[in-house]
Amino acid sequence: MPIYEYYCRACNTKFERLQPMNAANEAIVCPAGHEGAVRALSLIARPITGSGAERGNIGTCG
Question: N or C: which end of the chain has fewer CB within 10 A?
Answer without folding.
Answer: C
